[in-house]
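Sequence in, structure out. Go.
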Amino acid sequence: MTHNSFLFSSESVSEGHPDKLCDRISDAIVDTFLTAEPEARVAVETLTTTNRIVLAGEVRGPASISHNDIEEVARSCVRDIGYEQDGFHWKNAKVDIYVHAQSADIALGVDARGNKDEGAGDQGIMFGYACRETDVLMPAPIHYAHSILHSLAEARHSGVELGLGPDSKSQVTLLYEDGKPVRATSIVVSTQHNGDLEQDDVREIVRPHVVNVLPDGWMCDETEFYVNPTGRFVIGGPDGDCGLTGRKIIVDTYGGAAPHGGGAFSGKDPSKVDRSAAYAARYLAKNVVAAELADRCTIQVAYAIGVSKPLSLYVNLHDTGKVSEAQLEKALTEVMDLSPRGIREQLSLSRPIYARTAAYGHFGRAPEPDGGFSWERTDLVDALKAAV
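Output:
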């Protein structure tokens, strides 16, 4: 029997969360290299802790980008997010840089040469997913968890809520009936705040940002509305907890509602299929649902390092399909070239569009005029309908 009535939870973390701060720095470094050279190769990780930022990884790009430039990128990210605290300050934090040239062995496998096309930057499996739970074709719990924190961040940056700090988390639990979300049963929000605010003060600051994000009538009972459950959250960010790039991969994708291949996105240029193929899989899954070929769609692709063609393509329509999975698998290969080069060119990924992806999810965002979030377009609908 299908399990149609259940509770499901997803969490999000803000741009000021230590791990997301690291994602932002790593992605801003990717953007810096792609701005100077669209074919640059970047794999940079960031670690943050009390007044310290550590950068490590490998790059291949213009020598004009110095360690001083990279340090300035890191500091500007911290400043933009809003960290000017004794334990973590954009100006005073010590920055250590351990970034070196890309491995020649990796370059040999990835670069196009002779009759060999550009190969995948690593082996791995990647997933894409789409469903009808929201107008952006994302699972509802992660969509609303992101939206709550994004609303709080906008209020903080605009100066409307001066008592809030950059570090925050949310968790949304929804009740599903007959397989569809109908209301929230609990909401958790923890947000960094000034020391002169009490827990009840923070609760009332947070409340409208939750109520305004959720659909009418979806707000949980008062007893299930948890704001700063520990009672106090003044020390936050890297001063309160170590941060690392790539540690919030479920937050970045579908909130646990769909599989994840395991590879993080941030800090990687689009030759790394961990990132680009996950974007392509979301792009295809979203277009399948937008074309009304299914109400839910999961897509998996797999690659080997140095090999241009995907090793496999798998589609699961979760018994909601208007066509067969086998028919759709064939159609998807007709409407998109899933080689690393094909993905990068069709989605125009060799651009400095990545720092903006580092918080509030890589998926469910609006496509932007400069090519940002190009994988959220639904421009394959007609081609897919024709192909099936």
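Check: The longest helix spans residues 18-36. The longest strand covers residues 164-177.
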